Q: What sequence folds into this?
């Protein structure tokens, strides 16, 4: 399992990460656990829990120390998302969106933005997300940047639509990439309440409807230079991308733990039939341990620039998706018909696993990127 590795730890004093996780567990029991079924079935957005997790430090634990080029350690934030995902992947994904947004602001060279908006995002006072899927697919040659910017006095005018951005409400902010007229890209923080920004419902999803996922429409939106994260983004994008991808592994780790728990819960009453299944709890446990060990190794050095490190990050994210699918499918098989009832956790975990495998970078994106690294 992911270990607590904060330097302040001692024999009689809990580390900062241990304190964070203890506070987060209390908040989850109070603000998340009683609502899990409503989040899944009614699309309830767990705002109180997300703000409580921010107050506990879940969105600040991974931020670089002393400025955008200081040392950073993602492991506390990943562990925090894993704790929530043991109960609900919807909440864990919103945490990931929030932690990613905080990461992008903290890694920017825009010092006033870091000092002003940064702490409000890191504390959960302001909630939001990151429109990272479109630029990632663009760099893979699968899409074009969906937002177009026109340079004007003091900033840019931006038009276009991002079809999928999560953790957004009318008072939220998001990080968005837009094209510049000369063909390069810039990235900025955008206020959802700004003139010309419109949040639209993208349609009901198979799962995770409680994540406030929206299509974000830009109609001649003015983005001031003060809100730019990077312009142009090439070096910045490469610097933050490992953190963005690794932060997603927390929801898969917590999801895997929950599926393993389901398998153990039915091990004795259904032993006679379940021993005939190909995948037993030991296999899921071993794969989960291996993933957590690798994420712990990678999460301590998110700014590492070696190509081999980036390959390992992609492989870990792929392993997380594969594990989610395998763990959820086999948890359902071990639970049998009881797991297929409406409201049963096993069938919810299967739908959550499909999301983990599909959210950008999806399995197909990861395999494409890994194949291209071989050339």
A:
């Amino acid at each position: 399992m992911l270990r607590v590795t904060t330097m302040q730890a001692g024999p009689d004093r809990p580390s900062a990460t241990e304190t964070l996780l203890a506070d987060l567990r209390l908040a989850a029991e109070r603000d998340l656990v009683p609502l899990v079924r409503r989040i899944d079935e009614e699309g309830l957005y767990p705002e109180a829990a997300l703000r409580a997790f921010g107050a506990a430090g879940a969105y600040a634990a991974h931020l670089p120390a002393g400025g955008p080029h200081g040392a950073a350690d993602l492991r506390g934030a990943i562990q925090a998302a894993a704790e929530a995902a043991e109960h609900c992947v919807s909440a864990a994904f919103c945490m990931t969106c929030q932690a990613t947004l905080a990461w992008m602001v903290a890694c920017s060279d825009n010092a006033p933005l870091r000092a002003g908006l940064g702490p409000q995002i890191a504390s959960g006072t302001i909630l939001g997300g990151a429109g990272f899927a479109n630029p990632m697919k663009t760099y893979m040659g699968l899409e074009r940047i969906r937002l177009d910017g026109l340079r004007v006095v003091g900033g840019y005018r931006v038009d276009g639509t991002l079809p999928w951005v999560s953790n957004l409400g009318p008072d939220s902010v998001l990080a968005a990439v837009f094209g510049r007229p000369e063909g390069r890209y810039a990235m900025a923080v955008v206020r959802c309440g700004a003139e010309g920004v419109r949040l639209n419902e993208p349609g009901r999803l198979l799962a995770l409807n409680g994540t406030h996922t929206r299509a974000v429409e830009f109609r001649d939106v003015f983005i001031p230079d003060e809100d730019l994260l990077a312009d142009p983004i090439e070096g910045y994008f490469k610097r933050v991308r490992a953190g963005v991808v690794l932060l997603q592994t927390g929801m898969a780790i917590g999801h895997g733990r929950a599926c393993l728990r389901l398998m153990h819960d039915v091990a004795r009453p259904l032993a006679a039939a379940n021993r005939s299944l190909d995948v037993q709890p030991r296999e899921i446990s071993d794969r989960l341990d291996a993933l957590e060990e690798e994420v712990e190794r990678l999460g301590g050095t998110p700014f590492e620039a070696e190509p081999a490190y980036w390959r390992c990050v992609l492989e870990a994210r792929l392993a997380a998706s594969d594990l989610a699918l395998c763990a959820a499918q086999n948890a359902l098989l071990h639970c049998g018909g009881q797991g297929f009832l409406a409201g049963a956790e096993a069938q919810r975990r299967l739908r959550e696993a499909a999301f983990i495998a599909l959210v950008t970078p999806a399995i197909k994106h990861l395999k494409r990127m890994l194949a291209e690294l071989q050339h």
